[in-house]
Design a protein that fits this description.
Helices cover 76% and strands 0% of the residues. With 275 residues, it is mainly α. It is globular.
Length: 275
């Protein structure tokens, strides 16, 4: 490694260390019982958790929009959440930010022997299989009561459904192909229709849940991220609906309009997207 490259690496390490310490110093000051921010002082793990989840979604949103300035900001907000949780744990004598960072580094080294050790070179797919096998072995060693016990409850419901079916598939509790899942979807749609016909609100909720669960399973079988697919659908609906609003505004119209007129504008929005 050249002296120039070595110097640059050293500069980056020093810059990273200083910037990280600045974040930790800010967090410590905010939580200072005597001189900190009253709002920050009264928070706990449970009250901060929703903000942590929200910041993760905002990171994903910036990526989806290919907005790198926003991504930098949102990653900073997410890092602050890590610092917040670590600070609260440090105050309780449980662990601190350094423990979190070191545990992460150790775990990544352990899970990548083909990079940091003498393991064989792996493809991306082989690494995914190996990673899952390592996690499964740790779960078994910990005496986990169920294959599903550590699928986080706080995950978005569609994502959790996908992960539940993925776990079950490890012991072959899975449909062989997407075709069987599609058949199951038809079955669930028929049951939804029956519940609707009967006017059974409780059954309607249950059957709708079954349909969404099957859809998450189908997405997994088709190698589609269900949350990503739904985010894209939401974005597409937003673009097209805003197109309708703009065209109605150009015509001097506002509020509710005849459905056939808005449907025609929806079709026009689709044509405009296709160019």
């Amino acid at each position: 490694m050249s002296n120039q490259v070595t110097d640059k690496v050293g500069e980056n390490k020093e810059r990273n260390a200083l910037a990280t310490q600045a974040v930790l110093d800010v967090m410590a000051r905010l939580r200072d019982p005597a001189h900190g921010c009253p709002w920050d002082i009264e928070q706990n793990f449970r009250t901060i958790a929703p903000y942590t989840i929200e910041e993760a979604y905002e990171v994903a949103d910036a990526i989806e929009r290919a907005d790198l300035p926003s991504l930098k900001e949102e990653l900073g907000d997410l890092l602050f959440q890590v610092a917040f949780h670590a600070r609260m744990a440090e105050e309780q004598g449980a662990f601190d930010f350094a423990d979190v960072a070191q545990a992460l580094a150790d775990k990544m080294i352990e899970r990548h022997p083909h990079v940091f050790g003498a393991g064989d070179t792996r493809t991306a797919d082989e690494q995914t299989v190996a990673w899952e096998a390592q996690k499964a072995a740790k779960r078994a060693a910990s005496g986990a009561p169920s294959l599903l016990h550590d699928v986080p409850m706080a995950l978005p419901a569609l994502t959790r459904a996908e992960k539940l079916t993925k776990r079950a598939a490890r012991i072959n509790f899975d449909w062989p192909t997407p075709d069987e899942v599609l058949a199951k979807l038809d079955e669930e749609l028929a049951e939804l229709a029956e519940a609707r016909e009967a006017g059974d609100a409780e059954a309607l909720t249950e059957e709708m849940g079954d349909i969404l669960f099957v859809m998450a399973n189908l997405a997994r079988k088709l190698k589609v991220d269900p949350e990503e697919a739904l985010r894209r659908a939401n974005a597409k609906f937003t673009r097209r609906f805003q197109f309708i609003e703009a065209k109605l505004a150009e015509a001097g119209k506002s509020g509710a309009q005849p459905l056939d007129e808005m449907e025609a504008l929806w079709v026009a929005a689709k044509r405009a997207e296709r160019g």
